[in-house]
Amino acid sequence: MAGIYIHVPFCVQKCSYCNFYSIANLPLKKGFLKALAIEIVQHKAEFENEIVETVYFGGGTPSLLSADEIDAILMLLSKHYHWGNDMEITLEANPDDLTPDYLMKLAQTKVNRLSIGIQSFNDSILKQINRRHSAAQAIQSIEDARKAGFSNLSIDLIYGIPNQHDAQWLENLSLAVKLQIPHLSCYALTVEEHTVLHKKIEMNRADAPNEEDAVRQFDLLMDFADKEGYHQYEISNYCRDNLYSHHNRGYWNGVPYLGFGPGAHSFHGNTRKWNITNVVEYIKGINNGTSVAEEEQLTLRDRFNEYLLTSLRTDAGVEIDLMEKYFGVEYADWIKSRLGKIDSELFSICQNRINLTQKGKHWADYVTRELFMEES
Question: How many other CB atoms are found less than 10 A from the CB of residue 66?
């Protein structure tokens, strides 16, 4: 299987914490869509022998595209790429874009999964992180999506936000259960450089996240999810009824994917590419027939370390037998030697598979770094 990612680089306004590439210059959308169509056709030979099983519209705010524009992109993809029989097609959306009329039109396209950027069901918290929707709009968007026929729904929620108390965090989770959301993506608030939040903290105009609060709320999340029947199949992702994100699981399992649009990444076996993060230059480059991407060849060590980085975050964990098969005895022996240097409370080994414990999930980055193969 393989996946396709479409990066839609437009937002009406920038969330204070967001470091994904996006701009508020919507008049560039027409030029972007023309360039995107050219790029999609240009790269069809790269997936000549691949079956595409997932398409994911991310951003930015993909729900700023009309249903007709989304449909045109999907029709173009289906014309030039081999599609599987049971496609998962996800659209990231802001709650205030999901009007009943928009949803009814969207339901006429091949989009069959919505990932809604709720972040919080608390109005004061939403205002604090500069979201443009209200809690009421968030709830209404979920109800309207269901009425339009969308049942495969995911929502994003953020914990560790300054002034978000534990009770408020649990209220968010309880409301998600009440609304019967089958998939949750939950992230700790992080302060990235070059974001509005980072600048405000530097100027003492905003509080920095408290690490103890984030750790405690992550534990509350994991305990709550387990109690309510959500399976934590990746550190930040939880699902009921096996409705996990096939697209994102593909990333973690090393499945090839093509990324289109400014800032989009691609991966295919031993190579990785990424497009420039500039809409104007992207449009210009595509129209002029010049490359808009950089590319790197991945060494065996690169692929080994990437396997660790992704697999250790998932319920599948790291399979020592597979490591030996795909990377060689040296790499399997390296893992075994490094495990002795890590606190045994952070991981478990069962049937030659390494998994993080609940405590270890707090230390995932540390454990991964300890297991990385160093340059010789």
Answer: 13
Q: Per residue in 166-189, pLDDT tens?
A: 999 999 999 999 999 999 999 999
Structural element, H or E, at residue 6:
strand 2-8
Q: Which of the 8 DSSP states describes residue 23?
A: B
* Mean pLDDT across the chain: 93
Degrees, nearest 5: CA angle 69-15-208? 160
In which region does residue 180 sit, left (phi positive, over 0), alpha (psi from -120 to 50) or beta (all else)?
left
The pLDDT tens digits of the residues spanning 257-305 come to 999 999 999 999 899 999 999 999 999 999 999 999 999 999 999 999 9
- C-alpha 312/C-alpha 365 separation (Å) is 9
Contacts (Cβ under 8 Å, ≥6 apart) of 225: 173, 184, 231, 232, 238
Average pLDDT over residues 106-134: 95
From residue 260, alpha-carbon distances to 44, 60, 119, 297, 298 in Å are 11, 13, 26, 19, 20
Tell me the pLDDT tens digit for each residue of 112-121.
Answer: 999 999 999 9
Contact predicate 246/257, CB 8 Å: no
CB distance 75 to 108 below 8 Å: no
List phi, psi (to 5°) of 304.
-65, -50
Report which residue type is found at 343: D
Place of tokens 């709650």: 95
Encoding tokens for residue 331?
């790499």
- Strand pairing partners for 59? 8
| Whole-number Å distance between alpha carbons of 281 and 59 | 18
